[in-house]
Amino acid sequence: MNGEPRDDTANAQDIREILGPVDDTLIAAILAVGATREEVLAAHTWFNSDDYMHRQLHHALRGAAARVFDILEAEMPEPDRV
What is the number of structural domains in the chain? Predict the structure, then answer.
């Protein structure tokens, strides 16, 4: 990789479409990862998973999706569990 962004890297609008209204700091952290839209979506889906206990033990994400998941876990409130 030559350090330039890939054509499929998620932009701020993509991230907001997936996550909803979020802080610009969170957007910047995710942009810094260089994740694709699909990786952001995978991380968000796993973060909001109903399988809370399994999610806490280990998520099955790798690479950029795993880094985005870690950012979501650190920066976003836990999803409501009913």
Answer: 1
